[in-house]
Input
Amino acid sequence: GQNIDQPTEMTATEGAIVQINCTYQTSGFNGLFWYQQHAGEAPTFLSYNVLDGLEEKGRFSSFLSRSKGYSYLLLKELQMKDSASYLCAALDSNYQLIWGAGTKLIIKP
Amino acid sequence: DAEITQSPRHKITETGRQVTLACHQTWNHNNMFWYRQDLGHGLRLIHYSYGVQDTNKGEVSDGYSVSRSNTEDLPLTLESAASSQTSVYFCASSLQGRDTGELFFGEGSRLTVL
Output
């Protein structure tokens, strides 16, 4: 079956760095996506990886290892507004997104 | 600016009633999706469409239907609402191909079935 695993909840301190891991098992693979979702709001696109390596976008970076079925989202210089759920999703061979349940990130002052 | 809007944002209904949630996008995207989101679950796909007159079932399609008569709209109908369909519903759209996974979401519709 197809599956995405990510931690349910993480806590970090304002100004610090946090890494949110995601492992995936899909029928084929056409890319790995990260979305941010603030409480009560819609998810918004953060990043896309299809090749191995690190993609950097400001304070956020996303890494992919296709051979390991593994990705992580790295958030630097954490701000209180980064408190949100982070959703990992893999695009399978049918171009269907398979979603993880999300990681709730709590930022403490 | 292009956008995707859902209505109503909040709805309370009774078991057995028919409910329709509207979704309208001005991105001119061919792909449109309906998801439900419940605590402890990821986004679960209900139905999706890759273009006008095209509709497909997702993983949790039982009790739901959609129609796509134009590019902009994909209404979701609950034929006979059940308490298990109490959820937050998100409509989304995307381009085709590589960009299929970059979804633009509506604000969500919170449905309560009593």
